């Protein structure tokens, strides 16, 4: 008997607009914000949200090549329409016949959304068909004419709308199919279909980037966060001895009476360090990025893996503060080669040598390393904002 897949929540990120009011000569979702495209930061926020099972990116056809570095194979890519409502409808239609039961619809130009808000929007759907984040208006509200104040308006009950706006899938799909067009957001579409929309407290930092001043404010928010976010990861790897006359450790070829067995060059130290970097980014391990089932990686030099991992570190806006690699073996002796390994690892990662530690220990003749059946390695890496 076939078991149906569990319902999941999809995040629809709408990023097909051509808005240039913020300057920079690019649509705002592709402008730089703290060293990365705005859209890259928006996507990352939803990748980090535990309950988001699927990402749907709504892009302008001209932007598909530009987005290639941000996309994963499991992401769903949809072409935008000539209005925001049509773009969202295209995304919803692409989810028909999937197991998606809930959707969060978010502006690609809101890159500073927090995980807490995403979680609150998901939780709101436990007791409502639709929900949207908003902030109450606190400033005086005027109507102007010819540059002068013509009228003071009451602000009681008025809210500033934000995204992600959250819906059960079937009702919002039906609402978009029935809507004639021209909606400011998905709440307008939902209300036109008779759906009740619950208001959830939004976040001041969840601003929508529209004009140049918004980018300056966003940079200030990022600078504040950079002082707080630190990431660490650890890695562990083991390779058995086999036939050979040398081993690769830390990027250094060391003569030995045996070799190490592995799909690649079996550099156990570099593998542990690579996994530590991936782990700090919540990016899995080497096997996710370089599957051992893929024959192109058979016998590959491990510096390829390490260079890829440190490249991801930089792409995500971090740098390596320091790393520490410990090799566990009886033989070969690591001490005479430790400085050379330190130098090689720092060269591959393009960091200063004093950020890289390589050391060794034995297991006091205990276990498989003590019986000289193989070598183990563990590594720790600390990442800080660039």
Automatic annotation (TrEMBL):
Residues 231-386 are annotated as: 2-C-methyl-D-erythritol 2,4-cyclodiphosphate synthase. It catalyses: 4-CDP-2-C-methyl-D-erythritol 2-phosphate = 2-C-methyl-D-erythritol 2,4-cyclic diphosphate + CMP; 2-C-methyl-D-erythritol 4-phosphate + CTP + H(+) = 4-CDP-2-C-methyl-D-erythritol + diphosphate. Its EC number is 2.7.7.60, 4.6.1.12. Transmembrane segments: none annotated. A divalent metal cation binds at residues 237, 239, 271. InterPro entries: IspD, IspD/F, IspD/TarI, ISPD_synthase_CS, MECDP_synthase, MECDP_synthase_CS, MECDP_synthase_sf, Nucleotide-diphossugar_trans. NCBIfam families: ispD, ispF, PRK09382.1. Bifunctional enzyme that catalyzes the formation of 4-diphosphocytidyl-2-C-methyl-D-erythritol from CTP and 2-C-methyl-D-erythritol 4-phosphate (MEP) (IspD), and catalyzes the conversion of 4-diphosphocytidyl-2-C-methyl-D-erythritol 2-phosphate (CDP-ME2P) to 2-C-methyl-D-erythritol 2,4-cyclodiphosphate (ME-CPP) with a corresponding release of cytidine 5-monophosphate (CMP) (IspF). Belongs to the IspD/TarI cytidylyltransferase family. IspD subfamily. In the C-terminal section; belongs to the IspF family. HAMAP family: IspD, IspDF, IspF. This is Bifunctional enzyme IspD/IspF.
């Amino acid at each position: 008997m076939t078991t149906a897949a569990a319902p999941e929540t999809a995040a629809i990120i709408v990023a097909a607009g051509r808005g240039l009011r913020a300057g920079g000569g690019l649509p705002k979702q592709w402008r730089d914000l703290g060293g990365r495209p705005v859209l890259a930061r928006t996507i990352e926020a939803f990748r980090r949200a535990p309950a988001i099972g699927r990402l749907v990116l709504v892009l302008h056809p001209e932007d598909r090549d530009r987005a290639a570095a941000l996309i994963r194979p499991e992401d769903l890519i949809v072409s935008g329409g000539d209005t925001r409502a049509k773009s969202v409808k295209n995304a919803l239609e692409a989810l028909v016949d999937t197991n998606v039961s809930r959707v969060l619809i978010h502006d690609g130009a809101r890159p500073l959304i927090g995980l807490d808000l995403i979680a609150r929007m998901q939780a709101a759907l436990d007791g409502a068909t639709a929900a949207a984040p908003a902030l109450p208006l606190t400033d005086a509200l005027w109507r102007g004419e010819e540059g002068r104040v013509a009228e003071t308006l009451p602000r009681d009950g008025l809210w500033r709308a934000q995204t992600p706006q959250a819906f059960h899938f079937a009702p919002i799909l039906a609402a978009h199919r029935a809507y004639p067009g021209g909606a400011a957001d998905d709440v307008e579409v939902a209300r036109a279909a008779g759906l009740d929309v619950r208001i959830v407290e939004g976040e001041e930092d969840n601003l929508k980037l529209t004009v140049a001043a918004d980018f300056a404010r966003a940079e200030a928010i990022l600078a504040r966060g950079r002082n707080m976010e630190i990431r660490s990861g650890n890695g562990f790897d083991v390779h058995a001895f086999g036939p050979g006359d040398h081993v690769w450790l830390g990027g250094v070829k060391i003569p030995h009476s045996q070799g190490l067995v592995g799909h690649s060059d079996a550099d156990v130290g570099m593998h542990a360090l690579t996994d530590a970097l991936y782990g700090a980014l919540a990016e899995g391990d080497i096997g996710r990025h370089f599957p051992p089932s893929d024959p192109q990686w058979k016998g590959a030099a491990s510096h390829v893996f390490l260079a890829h991992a440190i490249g991801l570190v930089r792409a995500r806006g971090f740098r390596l503060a320091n790393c520490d690699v410990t090799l566990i073996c009886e033989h070969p002796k690591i001490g005479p080669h430790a400085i050379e390994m330190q130098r090689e690892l720092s060269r591959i990662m393009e960091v200063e040598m004093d950020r890289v530690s390589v050391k060794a220990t034995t297991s006091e003749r205990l276990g498989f390393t003590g019986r000289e059946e193989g070598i183990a390695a563990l590594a720790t890496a600390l990442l800080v904002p660039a």
